[in-house]
């Protein structure tokens, strides 16, 4: 991680973070925020000092907040086959530009779980020199609902390889869930084990 940017990151928080829900704006660094649409209000944006909002939805309208806040539209479909990677560099560069100008950025999609977190993770990899595994864990600690779809995660793995020449996360099969389940990021395996546990309970009639 670049030393000049390390101080911009926030320390890991405690139990309050684990209780966060979709309805909150999550602070990723001292100038970068992440959310879904539910908590987006003009007073909330103004109270945080947001100067740029990056809207990662297909058609959700921007808030009529006026010229004081710059809106950037990035039309992303939350589908595993959507090519999100074409936006990794442009969005990361825009976030960094706002930071260098002393501003604050809010990146949002509908739920703040897949599209916008994937773009924030790409930013952390490019400008904070964080490996994908570390960047994902860092963002998830600050917004526990973060869960980029498997297609976006595969694109993040490819982007990490492009940036660093190696990868810290792999796409792996989950044989116990059957061949139709496909590949998942290895960082999601614990989650898949939880699904297996639920399936086993249902099979036993619980």
TrEMBL record:
Residues 24-165 form the Tyrosine-protein phosphatase domain. Belongs to the protein-tyrosine phosphatase family. Non-receptor class dual specificity subfamily. GO terms for cellular component: cytoplasm. This is Dual specificity phosphatase, catalytic domain. It comes from the Eukaryota. The keyword Disulfide bond does not apply. InterPro entries: Dual-sp_phosphatase_cat-dom, Dual_spec_Phospatases, Prot-tyrosine_phosphatase-like, Tyr_Pase_AS, Tyr_Pase_dom, TYR_PHOSPHATASE_DUAL_dom. One of its GO terms (molecular function) is phosphoprotein phosphatase activity. The keyword Metal-binding does not apply. Keywords: Hydrolase, Protein phosphatase. Residues 89-144 form the Tyrosine specific protein phosphatases domain. It holds the Pfam family DSPc.
